[in-house]
């Protein structure tokens, strides 16, 4: 094998580092959603909390993109995630404000026209 000159070695290393920095990486985005085991009353409280604290609740109304399925867990998930997104996606904005009813997921819960940000 032939020896590479220092300049050629530098160019190869430089180009390699540029290429590595442009490779796609897996998204680390997370969404705050309702736990399947959450109690109905807690989910109702979560919906009320989110709507009273600046979350746009229109998407879960009958004419909204996230109304169906018309279930408390689905509506709560959408609103909990909206609150989480509006407050910097911190653990505190998911778990503290929605105790014993929230979980983080790395699977995008969006469906049809209901887009989770």
From TrEMBL:
Q: Name the domain of life this protein comes from.
A: Eukaryota
Task: Give the membrane topology.
Answer: Lipid-anchor; GPI-anchor
The principal localisation class reads membrane
List the SMART domains hit by this protein, alphabetically. Answer: X8
Residue ranges of domain X8 in the record: 30-116
The entry's keywords:
Glycoprotein, GPI-anchor, Lipoprotein, Membrane, Signal
The signal peptide here is 1-28
Where in this chain does the entry annotate a coiled-coil region? none
Q: Which Pfam families match?
A: X8 (PF07983)
Localization, per the record, is:
Cell membrane
Give the record's GO CC terms.
Answer: plasma membrane; plasmodesma; side of membrane
UniProt-recorded name of the protein: X8 domain
């Amino acid at each position: 094998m032939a020896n590479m000159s220092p300049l050629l070695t530098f160019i190869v290393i430089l180009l390699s580092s540029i290429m590595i920095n442009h490779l796609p990486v897996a998204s680390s985005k997370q969404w705050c959603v309702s736990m399947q085991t959450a109690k109905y009353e807690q989910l109702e409280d979560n919906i009320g909390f989110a709507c009273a604290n600046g979350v746009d609740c229109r998407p879960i109304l009958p004419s909204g993109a996230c109304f169906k399925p018309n279930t408390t867990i689905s509506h709560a998930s959408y609103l909990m995630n909206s609150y989480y997104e509006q407050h910097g996606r911190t653990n505190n904005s998911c778990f503290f404000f929605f105790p014993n009813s929230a979980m983080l997921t790395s699977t995008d819960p969006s469906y049809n026209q209901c887009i989770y940000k």
